[in-house]
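Tokens help. Consider this.
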Amino acid sequence: MSMHLLEKKIVKNNIFFVIPSWGDLLGYPTFGNYANHNISKISQDLVIFLGGTECALSTERGTLYFLFGLGYYYVKFELQSGIYITDNRQLTGLILPDFVYDHLATSKNITLENDRDVIIGEKLFKLPIDMSFKSENKITFIQGTLMRNLFIPYKDIFLEFMETIREPQSFQLNRSGHMLLSTHWDFYNKILISGDMEYEPKTAYLNSTAGLFGINFGADKILNENFTLSELKKIKESIIKLKILYSSIHYDPMFLFSIIENSSPLLRTSKSFSFNLEDDRMDKKMPKESIFISAESRMNSFKEWPTQLKRQTREQLESSIIQEKTRLYQPDKKEMLEKPEVLKFQKKEEGFELRTMKRPFVEIKPLPYIPHDNTLEILMTLKKIVEENYDITTIGKAFDIARNNIKKKILHENYLWDLSKYSNIYERTKPNIGLSLREKTEILEEIDKWVKITVEHSDKL
């Protein structure tokens, strides 16, 4: 692993950095493993960073890029047995070799934004925390685009991340050391942790999770080989500062762009950049995006993706998974004839009981007020009703009311039929029965899709 260091550039750079799908970035190398169970599907795999320090290391082997700050690896996946699970890992660093960086830097943009330091693309969202040098029109554009494409679809994940930052025991480098999400040549698609991590958090952190080849020791070695003690001290101080700042800032849970707005005055850029942040690209074709300031010297170079690291689509990976029949629920002929209303998944092997299809007994509660005039507010109220464990019959009535209220305003929305479908199904259910965990998860995902459609349509008006 040892490499001869040719050049190193460390830059203080407070940025908001999100990879919306880690698997998509890497070409879906694996679904991974969880609690000795195989994974059949990954539906979400975000990487979020509130970065503070970046670095480019030029070596004989290639260039390595580091981003240090407060990070989060979030994954939602399905086991072959049918149960949905969410998992996460705190991160303090990200390691990208040149071929991964260049793949990010040349990925397609999804907007017409032309700021050199703002990327809103298929594989990456990145912008500076300090936007005091931007015009109000540009900030408004960035704000709307982020809300529509990131903060609304992934609201719960960002709220979870911010709550994690606020926890006193989170991101404590003295207790846990560094946690690095790595695509380093020798540690590809792994999380590297410090050997100094205390026993209790270490035991939980090392458990395998979806989308990764593994979680291993090695953070200390790779950092000590590439950074001096004084550099590591500054990096540590930067992360501690970010932890204190983001633990204390106020933000609006319904307007998550306020995280950036409210932290911006506290993280003003004090160092000049190597490029003009307000440069317009319209008259100059750029070979790739400026993700890191430390990478500016490589703007005209490109590293191909290694042939040995085969890329594939999510569908190709899913089709390659061999289903284990012992992991799947197989109703016998008698059960199929009886058509039970509730399917009970039970599996004693390894103490792993699957109860996601079991509908719980719940008390009947009166429906809250459902708005009439605002489609987005109607859908968000509907989502809250599902989250708060109302009985299925009442949820069915809520879907019917929501459909009628939305229909008064817009007739063209393709999810009106879905609202009717769920209403008809749920209103025929026995009273005092709530949604199963799996039903609840799936319907919340549906509502999130409807919210996204509504926001996109309203933005076009």
